[in-house]
Automatic annotation (TrEMBL):
Gene3D superfamilies, sorted: Dihydrofolate Reductase, subunit A
PANTHER family: DIHYDROFOLATE REDUCTASE
Recorded superkingdom: Bacteria
Pfam family, one: DHFR_1
Molecular functions (GO terms): dihydrofolate reductase activity
Entry EC no(s): 1.5.1.3
Name recorded for this polypeptide: Dihydrofolate reductase
Keywords: NADP, One-carbon metabolism, Oxidoreductase
NADP in keyword set: yes
Bilayer-crossing regions: none
Keyword set includes Oxidoreductase: yes
Catalysis performed (reactions): (6S)-5,6,7,8-tetrahydrofolate + NADP(+) = 7,8-dihydrofolate + NADPH + H(+)
Coiled coil: none
Amino acid sequence: MTITLIAAAAENNALGKDNQMVWRLPDDFKRFKALTTGHHIVMGRKTLESMDGPLPNRTNIIITRQKEYTYEGCIIVYSLEEALAACPQNEEVFIIGGGEIYKQSIDNADKIELTRVHTTVKADAFFPEIDEKKWKLTEKVFHPKDEKHQYDFVFETWVRKIR
Protein backbone atom coordinates (compact mmCIF):
# COMPACT_ATOMS: atom_id res chain seq x y z
CA MET A 1 0.00 0.00 0.00
CA THR A 2 1.17 3.49 -0.82
CA ILE A 3 -0.02 6.04 1.73
CA THR A 4 -0.30 9.57 0.37
CA LEU A 5 -1.17 12.62 2.44
CA ILE A 6 -2.97 15.23 0.34
CA ALA A 7 -3.57 18.73 1.68
CA ALA A 8 -3.57 22.46 1.00
CA ALA A 9 -1.66 24.38 3.66
CA ALA A 10 -0.56 27.98 4.09
CA GLU A 11 3.07 28.97 4.66
CA ASN A 12 2.44 28.64 8.42
CA ASN A 13 1.00 25.12 7.79
CA ALA A 14 -2.55 26.38 8.45
CA LEU A 15 -5.24 24.08 7.06
CA GLY A 16 -8.45 25.65 8.29
CA LYS A 17 -10.39 27.37 11.01
CA ASP A 18 -13.67 26.41 12.70
CA ASN A 19 -13.83 23.23 10.57
CA GLN A 20 -13.72 25.21 7.30
CA MET A 21 -11.07 25.82 4.66
CA VAL A 22 -9.85 29.41 4.64
CA TRP A 23 -9.55 29.83 0.85
CA ARG A 24 -11.20 28.72 -2.36
CA LEU A 25 -8.78 27.45 -5.00
CA PRO A 26 -10.70 25.77 -7.86
CA ASP A 27 -7.54 24.38 -9.52
CA ASP A 28 -6.53 22.77 -6.22
CA PHE A 29 -9.97 21.13 -6.01
CA LYS A 30 -9.54 19.84 -9.60
CA ARG A 31 -6.13 18.36 -8.76
CA PHE A 32 -7.49 16.80 -5.55
CA LYS A 33 -10.38 15.22 -7.47
CA ALA A 34 -8.10 13.94 -10.26
CA LEU A 35 -5.68 12.33 -7.78
CA THR A 36 -8.22 10.80 -5.37
CA THR A 37 -11.09 9.66 -7.62
CA GLY A 38 -11.39 5.87 -7.65
CA HIS A 39 -9.32 5.47 -4.48
CA HIS A 40 -9.91 4.89 -0.79
CA ILE A 41 -9.74 8.14 1.17
CA VAL A 42 -9.25 8.34 4.94
CA MET A 43 -10.40 11.31 7.00
CA GLY A 44 -11.48 12.33 10.44
CA ARG A 45 -15.13 12.81 11.37
CA LYS A 46 -14.85 16.61 11.47
CA THR A 47 -13.43 16.67 7.94
CA LEU A 48 -16.37 14.60 6.69
CA GLU A 49 -18.86 16.87 8.45
CA SER A 50 -17.23 19.98 6.96
CA MET A 51 -17.78 18.63 3.42
CA ASP A 52 -21.53 18.03 3.29
CA GLY A 53 -21.06 14.28 3.14
CA PRO A 54 -18.87 11.66 1.50
CA LEU A 55 -16.99 12.40 -1.70
CA PRO A 56 -18.37 10.65 -4.78
CA ASN A 57 -16.47 7.96 -6.72
CA ARG A 58 -14.23 7.19 -3.74
CA THR A 59 -14.43 4.83 -0.78
CA ASN A 60 -14.77 7.16 2.23
CA ILE A 61 -13.26 5.82 5.48
CA ILE A 62 -13.99 7.92 8.56
CA ILE A 63 -12.01 7.80 11.81
CA THR A 64 -13.94 8.77 14.94
CA ARG A 65 -13.81 8.14 18.69
CA GLN A 66 -17.62 8.11 18.82
CA LYS A 67 -18.60 4.43 19.03
CA GLU A 68 -22.22 5.01 17.93
CA TYR A 69 -21.31 7.22 14.96
CA THR A 70 -22.77 6.34 11.56
CA TYR A 71 -22.80 8.12 8.23
CA GLU A 72 -24.48 6.77 5.13
CA GLY A 73 -22.06 5.84 2.37
CA CYS A 74 -19.02 5.71 4.68
CA ILE A 75 -16.97 3.05 6.43
CA ILE A 76 -16.62 4.05 10.10
CA VAL A 77 -13.51 3.02 12.06
CA TYR A 78 -11.96 4.00 15.38
CA SER A 79 -8.23 4.30 14.64
CA LEU A 80 -5.78 5.01 11.84
CA GLU A 81 -4.66 1.36 11.99
CA GLU A 82 -8.25 0.20 11.46
CA ALA A 83 -8.68 2.67 8.59
CA LEU A 84 -5.57 1.40 6.79
CA ALA A 85 -6.59 -2.23 7.39
CA ALA A 86 -9.89 -1.47 5.61
CA CYS A 87 -8.02 -0.35 2.46
CA PRO A 88 -6.71 -2.54 -0.38
CA GLN A 89 -3.11 -3.44 0.42
CA ASN A 90 -1.91 -3.10 -3.19
CA GLU A 91 -3.26 0.39 -3.99
CA GLU A 92 -2.58 4.04 -3.23
CA VAL A 93 -4.62 5.32 -0.27
CA PHE A 94 -5.13 9.03 0.40
CA ILE A 95 -5.24 10.65 3.83
CA ILE A 96 -7.29 13.81 3.32
CA GLY A 97 -7.40 15.35 6.80
CA GLY A 98 -7.77 16.93 9.15
CA GLY A 99 -4.82 18.15 11.15
CA GLU A 100 -4.95 15.42 13.80
CA ILE A 101 -5.20 12.62 11.22
CA TYR A 102 -2.27 14.06 9.23
CA LYS A 103 -0.21 14.20 12.45
CA GLN A 104 -1.01 10.55 13.23
CA SER A 105 -0.24 9.34 9.70
CA ILE A 106 2.80 11.33 8.49
CA ASP A 107 5.29 8.79 9.92
CA ASN A 108 3.57 5.99 7.94
CA ALA A 109 3.21 7.98 4.72
CA ASP A 110 5.14 7.30 1.51
CA LYS A 111 4.20 10.50 -0.32
CA ILE A 112 2.80 13.99 0.31
CA GLU A 113 0.82 15.89 -2.31
CA LEU A 114 0.83 19.38 -0.83
CA THR A 115 -0.65 22.55 -2.22
CA ARG A 116 1.44 25.24 -0.54
CA VAL A 117 -0.70 28.39 -0.45
CA HIS A 118 1.38 31.56 -0.38
CA THR A 119 -0.28 33.29 2.54
CA THR A 120 -0.32 33.11 6.33
CA VAL A 121 -3.71 32.78 8.02
CA LYS A 122 -5.12 32.29 11.50
CA ALA A 123 -6.15 28.67 11.94
CA ASP A 124 -6.99 25.99 14.46
CA ALA A 125 -5.92 23.03 12.30
CA PHE A 126 -2.39 22.63 10.96
CA PHE A 127 -0.44 20.32 8.65
CA PRO A 128 2.60 18.74 10.35
CA GLU A 129 6.06 20.13 9.63
CA ILE A 130 7.77 18.33 6.72
CA ASP A 131 11.20 17.14 7.89
CA GLU A 132 13.51 17.58 4.90
CA LYS A 133 15.87 14.95 6.33
CA LYS A 134 13.09 12.38 5.76
CA TRP A 135 11.34 13.86 2.71
CA LYS A 136 12.53 14.89 -0.76
CA LEU A 137 10.70 17.47 -2.87
CA THR A 138 10.43 15.86 -6.32
CA GLU A 139 8.06 18.21 -8.12
CA LYS A 140 6.98 21.85 -7.83
CA VAL A 141 4.40 23.51 -10.08
CA PHE A 142 3.71 27.20 -9.48
CA HIS A 143 0.20 28.60 -9.98
CA PRO A 144 -0.14 32.40 -9.90
CA LYS A 145 -3.14 34.08 -8.37
CA ASP A 146 -5.77 35.13 -10.89
CA GLU A 147 -9.45 36.05 -11.04
CA LYS A 148 -10.46 32.63 -9.63
CA HIS A 149 -7.58 32.19 -7.16
CA GLN A 150 -7.03 34.70 -4.37
CA TYR A 151 -3.45 33.51 -3.64
CA ASP A 152 -0.39 32.22 -5.46
CA PHE A 153 0.20 28.54 -4.70
CA VAL A 154 2.52 25.69 -5.58
CA PHE A 155 1.65 22.03 -6.12
CA GLU A 156 4.43 20.11 -4.34
CA THR A 157 5.10 16.38 -4.44
CA TRP A 158 7.24 15.00 -1.62
CA VAL A 159 8.50 11.40 -1.40
CA ARG A 160 9.96 9.69 1.64
CA LYS A 161 13.78 9.42 1.59
CA ILE A 162 14.16 7.05 4.53
CA ARG A 163 11.79 5.05 6.65
